């Protein structure tokens, strides 16, 4: 969901619609989908560890250099 890349052609229509709406909401609020996703999991007390994948060294550096959103910047569900 964090990537703006298209889903597979055989993805369920509901998932495609949800992803479009999600990215539209992020764009409207000037939020970076990667920062939102990583900020959410790093603040979620139910998550002990998480794994993410990258396609290049550049992507890895961008993720490692991210400035996380504060709780007051984004309304994360409790």
Percent of residues in helices? 40-55%
What's the alpha carbon Rg, rounded to whole Å?
14 Å
Shape: globular
Average pLDDT, all residues: 84
Q: Give a count of the beta strands, DSSP E runs of length 2 or more.
A: 0
Compute the separation of the termini in Å.
Answer: 20 Å
Which stretches are poorly predicted, pLDDT < 50 over at least 5 residues? none
Tally of helical runs = 3
Strand-and-helix sequence, N→C?
HHH
Structural class: mainly alpha
Report the β-strand fraction as a percent range.
under 5%
Q: Sheet with the most strands?
A: none
Descriptive account of the structure:
With 78 residues, the protein is mainly alpha-helical. 45% of the residues lie in helices and 0% in strands. It contains three helices and no strands. It has helices at residues 13-28, 33-43, 57-64. It starts with 12 loop residues before the first helix and ends in a 14-residue tail after the last helix. The model has no long low-confidence stretch (mean pLDDT 84).
What topology does this entry show?
Layout: H1 13-28, H2 33-43, H3 57-64
What distinguishing features does this structure have?
45% helix, mainly alpha, 78 residues, globular
Task: Write a short abstract of this structure.
With 78 residues, this protein is mostly helical. The protein is built from 3 helices and no strands.
